[in-house]
Amino acid sequence: MKKTFFTLLLAFSLLCSGCGEDLNNTPTKQVEMFFMNYQTLDQEVISDLNDTLNSDTTMNSSQKEEYKEIMKKHYKNLIYDVKDEIINGDTATVQVEIEVYDYSKINKAVNKYLEDNPTEFLDEDNNYDQEKFIDYKLSELKKAKEKVKYTLDLSLTKSNDKWQMDQISSITEDKILGIYEY
């Protein structure tokens, strides 16, 4: 009886040796949390968006607010699906497929429209009116329904026993934002 009890106790202690580990400390979980931060409009994501808008000199304050709402909708509707995880020591790559609004296609169409219809964006003195163009562009971005899929390979590094995403490239960021020109 004592032998069975000690065998069970040993088995239980071996099973629980990983019980104290952080279940979010995997490359896949870190990538999932990264995208969930967008979907849930995490404070850091909104802060980054605000910083970007604050440094923008092309839009007026109401246009910035309108753009902010467009991007919040974009973030909430971002879809991701983790496809693979490869760990090699203290480095890892997580392959994820994302689906986002295709703002790149809209940007191309808006710029083509400006090229074909320049007089629509002139002020009363026949000078180009950037504010009119941005209003038009924002109205078109608001209508976005078409989406595009991208496959991303995100790299992570383990430091002090914690997986952390490496800095993403500008191309990856453009894909997440839906503005990657393909």
Summary keywords:
182 residues; alpha+beta; Nuclear Transport Factor 2, Chain: A; four-stranded antiparallel sheet; disordered N terminus
Q: In a few lines, what is going on in this structure?
A:
The protein has 182 residues and is of the alpha+beta class.
Treating each run of at least 4 consecutive H or I residues as one helix, how many helices?
Answer: 7
Strand order in the largest sheet: 1-2-3-4
Strand content: 15-25%
- CATH arch. level architecture of the domain at 24-109 and 144-177: Roll
Oligomer: single chain
Just give the CATH class of the domain at 24-109 and 144-177: Alpha Beta
Task: Sketch the major β-sheet.
Answer: 4 strands, antiparallel
> Uncertain segments of ≥5 residues (pLDDT<50)?
1-18
Radius of gyration of CA atoms, rounded to a whole number:
24 Å
What is the end-to-end distance? 70 Å
Number of strands: 4
The share of residues in helices is: 40-55%
Structural class: alpha+beta
Overall, the morphology is elongated
SSE string: HHHHEEHHEEH
In the CATH hierarchy, the third-tier topology of the domain at 24-109 and 144-177 is known as Nuclear Transport Factor 2, Chain: A
Mean residue pLDDT:
90
